[in-house]
Amino acid sequence: xxSDITNSPTSESSVQSSESVQDSExxxxxxxxxxxxxxLASCDGHGTLDILKITRILEEAGIPCCLVGTSALRYFGxxxxxxxxxxxxTAQLDIASSxxxxxxxxxxxxxxxxxxxxxxxxxxxxYPRFKCNDISxxxxxxxxxxxxxxxxPSNFERSRMGLPYPKLDIYAQSLLxxxxxxxxxxxxxxxxxxxxxxxxxxxxxxxxDTTWAAQKNELIRAAVPSGDYSCLYELSxxxxxxxxxxxxxxxxxEHRLGIKYPKKLFLTRFRLHNxxxxxxxxxxxx
Length: 286
What we know:
The chain is of the alpha+beta class. It is about 35% helix and about 10% strand. The chain has helices spanning about 10-20, 50-60, 70-75, 95-100, 170-175, 180-190, 195-200, 210-225, 240-250, 255; strands at about 65-70, 85-90, 110, 130, 140-145, 155-160, 165, 265-270, 270. The strands form three sheets. A five-stranded mixed sheet has the order 1-2-5-4-3. Strands 6-7 form a two-stranded antiparallel ribbon. A two-stranded antiparallel ribbon has the order 8-9. Strand 6 and strand 7 (about 165) form a beta hairpin. The longest helix is centred in the C-terminal third of the chain and has 14 residues, at about 210-225.
């Protein structure tokens, strides 16, 4: 599998901290406050059909793409606030950005400065970001190198709304390889995945991709202000067993319920007893 980049906590304490934040009540409204007079994005403000249009523009231009990050987690049943991240093959990132800036698409999309807030382990502030004109909707293009996903159609599946997402095993493998524990635990809970599923569908040999982490750290060092604490933005390059990481993620489902989610009702934080695969439900937001 190829290399892609997403946020990857470097210690169990950081995982617990991040999970406690995300476990707080989440407002599922996709509405963002835009400029005065702007229209609401499609699908009650979620923007699903607007993003579908963008993915089709890219695909028709020969640029494969899929939705990653919190967008993918929501597709797989996770209750997270969503930002629209579109994964593009790294070699085609500039081509995709230029395409959306050119006629006739420049009438619909405007380059928008990425958020300047630096995030730990992240290069989001360096990637192309756009706003849909006259609509309260933003999206960002992410190079596949950043997501550790081989961005090609055979690795995608479609939501019932037609949006492209990485297949479940592809996405889970990327989270293992990048040691993104928070997202991995969310995915396990969203899909109620088992140890047996991982043994059958994932490569659990060896360790996470430390070469990928070291390469990303080089990019982070070049993209953040140098200082006494700039190293805190970097990923850990420690090797962790994929198999042990998977076992901890799966065996922790009940523990992550805590006192907030009654075990009589919940299988996981995001799944009730007798819930079906969330991908089979009619959902306008994915």
